[in-house]
Amino acid sequence: GDPARLRQLVMILVDNAIRHSPTDGRVGVEVRADAGGASLIVEDEGPGIRPEDLPHLFERFYRAHSAPRGGTGLGLAIAAWIVDRHGGRIEVANRVEGGARFVVHLPAS
């Protein structure tokens, strides 16, 4: 893969998790090998994502109503583009414990 773009992908997801977590919250980052490739998992302890926002998170310029100030709505769209260009997929869901979980699956080749 493209090291610069993959680094950008990680930074987008981690920065997003930090911005959505409370001051004393934790952000989890995990990378693991899986069948045919690798997975990147980024979790936060923020408020989670409203169900009506989930289908739109990866659209360019989309900003959820409760999004922190200062963003442009491009970060997650760029992340999805990077994943797509590497032949992978990105998923997002709310955690049962609260917060959000982004999972990126990338093929080995």
Account of the 3D structure:
The protein has 2 helices and 4 strands; from the N terminus they run H-E-E-H-E-E. It has 109 residues and is of the alpha+beta class. Strands 1-2-4-3 form a 4-stranded antiparallel beta sheet, covered by helices on one side. The chain starts with a helix and ends with a strand.
Major beta-sheet overview: 4 strands, antiparallel
Strand element count: 4
Mean pLDDT across residues: 91
As residue ranges, the low-confidence spans are none
- Major sheet strand order: 1-2-4-3
- Total helices: the number is 2
What structural class is derived from the secondary structure elements? Answer: alpha+beta
Measured distance between first and last alpha carbons:
8 Å
The general outline is globular
H/E series, N to C? HEEHEE
* Integer-rounded radius of gyration: 13 Å
* Beta-strand content estimate: 25-35%
Helix content: 25-40%
Task: Record keyword descriptors for this entry.
109 residues, alpha+beta, four-stranded antiparallel sheet, 2 helices, globular
